[in-house]
Write a structure and sequence with these properties.
The protein has helices at residues 4-18, 41-45, 156-163, 170-175, 185-194, 215-234; strands at 23-28, 50-56, 59-64, 68-73, 79-83, 105-111, 116-120, 127-132, 275-279, 282-286. The protein is α+β, with helices and mostly antiparallel strands. The chain has a four-stranded antiparallel beta sheet with strand order 1-6-7-5.
Length: 292
C-alpha cells in the first residue's frame, strides 16, 4: 500500500493540472470501489473548481469551491494518470511505461487545464468520498488521526506524549495512525534503523517519568523527518504497484538501508547482518547488533 511519501508524490504530480482548474466532467465508471460511490458523486463534482489540493496522512484532499472536499485514497493498487498533450513533468529519474488497461480506469476527471485525470485501480481497494468542509472533523475516516510527521508541530515532545505509558513495541506504536499519521511499514523500518532503535523496544521508553522526550525520541523524530523527506524527493518507493502520476517509477527503494535487505551486511560497519522477523503480521527488517 502506498505510504505517505508516495501519496505526497502523487499530490505534487496532480497539483499543476488540478489546483485552480475546473472539473468540466466527472465520471465514475463503476458503482463502487472499496466502498460504493455516493449517488450524486459525479454531479457534485462536475463544474466545480479545485481551489486547493492537500494531503492528510495517506489521503488526498481536493478542496472545492462548493464548500465540499473530495477525499481520495489509493488503496492497495490505485494510481492517477495524467493524460495531456504536453509531457507530464513530475519528480523521478527512473522511467517505465505505465499500463493503460482501460478495464481498470474507474474514475475520470476532465479538467479545464486541458488534462484528463484517470484513476486506475486493478484491485479496487481505493475509494473516494465527497464530504462537506465543515463536517471534516466529524468524518469517521479522518477522526482520530494523529499528527502529521512532517508538520511543524510534530517534534520529540509530541511523539513522547503519544508513546508515554504504552506497553506496545515501538514499531507497533509508530504504525498506529492515532500516534502519528501516514507512516507505514517501509518507512518505520528505515527510521528505526537510522535512529539505532530496536523495533522490539517498548514504546514508553521514548518518554521519561515526567512524559518528557528522551534522547531516543529526539533521534527518532530526526530520522523520521530525514527518511520521509528523502523518499519524497526520490518520488517514493516503487514496490509492486506504486507509480507516479507520469507513469515513472519512484526510486527510493534504491536507498533502502534495511528494508528488504535480509542477509546483507549492515551498512553501519558494526559487523551485523540484516535480519527479518514477523511483527504484528508485517515483515520487520533490522540489525540486531546496532539497533537497541
Amino acid at each position: 500500500m502506498p505510504e505517505l511519501p508516495e501519496v505526497e508524490t502523487v499530490r505534487r504530480g496532480l497539483q499543476p493540472v488540478m489546483e485552480g482548474a475546473k472539473i468540466l466532467h466527472a465520471e465514475a465508471r463503476r458503482k463502487d470501489l472499496r466502498f460504493p460511490f455516493q449517488k450524486d458523486f459525479a454531479a457534485r463534482l462536475t463544474g466545480q473548481t479545485v481551489i486547493g489540493l492537500g494531503r492528510r496522512a495517506k489521503y488526498l484532499m481536493a478542496d472545492l469551491a462548493s464548500g465540499d472536499v473530495l477525499l481520495m485514497h489509493l488503496g492497495m493498487s490505485g494510481s492517477f494518470r495524467v493524460e495531456n498533450k504536453d509531457e507530464a513533468k513530475t519528480p523521478g529519474e527512473f522511467h517505465c511505461p505505465r499500463g493503460k488497461d482501460a478495464a481498470h480506469d474507474h474514475v475520470l476527471f476532465r479538467m479545464s487545464s486541458g488534462a484528463d485525470i484517470v484513476f486506475n485501480d486493478p484491485r479496487r481497494f481505493g475509494y473516494m468520498k465527497i464530504i462537506a468542509r465543515d463536517a471534516l472533523d466529524a468524518e469517521p475516516l479522518l477522526r482520530g488521526l494523529g499528527p502529521e510527521p512532517l508538520g511543524n508541530e510534530f517534534d520529540a515532545a509530541m511523539l513522547a506524549r503519544g508513546c508515554a505509558g504504552k506497553s506496545t513495541t515501538l514499531k507497533a506504536a509508530l504504525l498506529d495512525q492515532r500516534v502519528v499519521a501516514g507512516l507505514g511499514n517501509i518507512y518505520v523500518c528505515e527510521a528505526l534503523y537510522r535512529a539505532h532503535l530496536s523495533p522490539k523496544r517498548q514504546a514508553s521508553t521514548l518518554a521519561n517519568k515526567k512524559r518528557e522526550p528522551t534522547d531516543h525520541a529526539k533521534r527518532l523524530v530526526d530520522a523520521i523527518h530525514e527518511v520521509l523527506n528523502q523518499a519524497i524527493k526520490a518520488g517514493g518507493s516503487s514496490l509492486r504497484d506504486h507509480r507516479q502520476t507520469s507513469g515513472e517509477l519512484g526510486y527510493f527503494q534504491h536507498s533502502f538501508q534495511v528494508y528488504d535487505r535480509e542477509g546483507e551486511p549492515c551498512g553501519k560497519a558494526c559487523g551485523g547482518v540484516i535480519r527479518r522477523f514477523t511483527q504484528n503480521g508485517r515483515s520487520t527488517f533490522w540489525c540486531p547488533k546496532c539497533q537497541k
